[in-house]
Amino acid sequence: MDVFSQVIASTRAGRAKFNRTRRTGMWGNSYGPYPGAGFHVLLHGSCWFVPPHGEPVQLSAGDVVFLPHGARHGMSDRADRVVDDLPAAELGSSAETQDPADPRDVHADLLCGAYRLDRGDAHPLLRTLPGFLLLSSERHGSLRSVVDLLSAELAHPRPGTDASLPALLDLLLVDLLRGWFDEESTRNPGRGWPAALADPLLAAALNRMHAEPGYEWTVAGLGATVNMSKTTFARRFTALIGQPPMTYLTWVRLSTAARLLRESDIPVSAIAHQVGYGSPFAFGTAFRREFGTAPGLFRRRARQGRVDSPQDH
C-alpha cells in the first residue's frame, strides 16, 4: 500500500454519513465541532461558507469545502452571517433536509456530510492540513467528475444508488487530498508532505517503511535503499516530514498494529512480531504509550465501536 493510500486507510472508520439539502430564501446553519472530517459539496447555485475565524467565502456550483479536523463553521445565503448566530445543525443529518415545492426556487443545492475518522490512527500528514480546504472542481478535472457523478446519482436515483454513493464519497475524499497536494505544491514548492511524496527518493523510502514495517530498519539502512547517506537521508526526511525517520517508523508500526487488531483475529503476540517488536511486552508498552490502552483492550473496544482516542503528545 502506497503512503497516500495509507493516509486514507489508516484514518477512515466506516462509511461517510451525508444528506442532500436544497435551500431557498433566507437560510443558514452552524455545524460542529465534529469528531471526524466534514464536507460540503455545492451541486448547484451559490452560497457562503462561514469559517469560525476570518472572512466568509462565496461558493459557486462545483466547489467543495473539506474540514479535516471537524472545525466549527457555518453555511449561509449571505456573507454577513456570524457562526454564533446561526441555528445549529448536524452534518449529514436527515433533519436538515429542505425541499422547496418548486425546484426553480432552489438557491443552493448542497450535499453535506462527514467522514468518520479514527483520530487514534491519524496519519501525520492529516495533522498538517489547515482548518478547512476549499477546492474548485473547475480547476481539478477528476474532482469535477466525482461531483458530476454525485449530482447525477442524487438527481436520478437508480438501483444501486445506495451502494454507489458511499463509494463516490470515498473517491471524493481521495480527490480532495490530491487537489490540495497539487495546490500546496504550487504555493509552497519544496516544503512539507507534498514535496516529500513528490521526491522520488523519499517516496521510495516511505513506501518501503509502509510495505515492511516489521523489518529491522535503521536510518542508515533506509538511506541505503535509496542510495543516500545516513546524514543526508535523515536531514531531508526530517525537514520535509517534520519528524525523524525512526519516529515516523514507530507510528507506521503502531498504526499498522491498530488496524490489524481492529480487522483481524491475529494473536497479539503475532502482531507484535509482524510490526517489528521483539516481544509482546515491548509491543504492549509502546502501544499503550501511543493509544493509552493495552492492545487486547483496544481490540475489544474496537469491536464494540468504542475505541478511545490516543493521548495527545
Automatic annotation (TrEMBL):
Domain HTH araC/xylS-type: 203-301
Keywords: DNA-binding, Transcription, Transcription regulation
InterPro entries xref list: AraC_lig, AraC_XylS_family_regulators, Homeodomain-like_sf, HTH_AraC, HTH_AraC-typ_CS, RmlC_Cupin_sf
Listed Pfam families: Cupin_6, HTH_18
GO molecular function ontology, one term from the record: sequence-specific DNA binding
PANTHER family in the record: HTH-TYPE TRANSCRIPTIONAL ACTIVATOR RHAS (PTHR46796:SF13), HTH-TYPE TRANSCRIPTIONAL ACTIVATOR RHAS-RELATED (PTHR46796)
Protein name stated in the entry: AraC-type DNA-binding protein
Organism for this UniProt entry: Microlunatus soli
